[in-house]
């Protein structure tokens, strides 16, 4: 069985009891960075053997881990922080397990994207997770162009050395929309800055950013279509409502009161005479 285990994104205490138990019980822990994971294991006195599984060895290591799983070895998969499979090679191992009919399960826990989204204060009803922007210029532009009309909140990951350039690129498509730049999630110096992309770029040009960032982009405000009160009134009349009820219903869907709608009706009648 493969256990996909979420690990803390900053504060070492943000790990579930279930993940700790599984890390102790499995035969091997496959880690994105064994040195980073060893710090976590040492804190909780876990002695399970480690092996590396990361972006640069996934092609050769994935089949090896799959073979072990097929032979009954229990393996826990962890990333440097957060949920494996989110913007990391854990996704490839999951696909390999599905292909080879290997049992696997996910143990929930901390995820930087969700933490940052809630901290942003922007709409959480519906959102888009983009992870890291593509390095390919054409693919990158295609993703950025979608931002302009996107009404849902968007979540991006970005490294500090690329942050200013990325914010300048985003600024061209977001205008006055707010962005939350979040770093040091769950740590003592957790920081959230909310401003436009252009304003954030200026801030970080003067004060060089440090640490991995999550950028949450506010969705484009939906343009509210103002209904014509007389059109609404006529529509309700055609549906069989009486004049008073039709005025009342039209008023409830506009900024006008019943008397104002009545005045518009009278004016229209006078213009037809």
CATH A-level architecture of the largest domain: 3-Layer(aba) Sandwich
Counting DSSP E segments of at least 2 residues, the number of strands comes to 10
**Using only CA atoms, what is the Rg?**
27 Å
CATH class of the largest domain: Alpha Beta
Helix and strand sequence: EHEHEHEHEHEHEHEEHEHHH
CATH structural fold name of the largest domain = Cobalt-precorrin-4 Transmethylase, domain 1
The structural domain count equals: 3
Report the portion of residues in β strands: 15-25%
Structural class: alpha/beta
CATH homologous superfamily descriptor of the largest domain: Tetrapyrrole methylase, N-terminal domain
Low-pLDDT regions: none
Helix coverage percent: 40-55%
In whole angstroms, how far apart are the ends?
A: 83 Å
Provide a count of the helices.
Answer: 11
What is the overall pLDDT average? 93
Strand neighbour order, sheet with most strands: 3-2-4-1-5
Shape: elongated
The main β sheet shows up as: 5 strands, parallel
List the helices and strands and how they pair.
Layout: E1 2-5, H1 17-25, E2 28-31, H2 34-43, E3 50-52, H3 58-70, E4 75-78, H4 90-99, E5 104-107, H5 112-120, E6 127-132, H6 137-147, E7 153-158, H7 163-174, E8 178-183, E9 191-196, H8 197-206, E10 213-217, H9 229-238, H10 243-252, H11 258-272
Parallel strand pairs: 1-4, 1-5, 2-3, 2-4, 6-7
Antiparallel strand pairs: 7-10, 8-9, 8-10
Helix pairs in contact: 3-4, 6-7, 7-8, 9-10
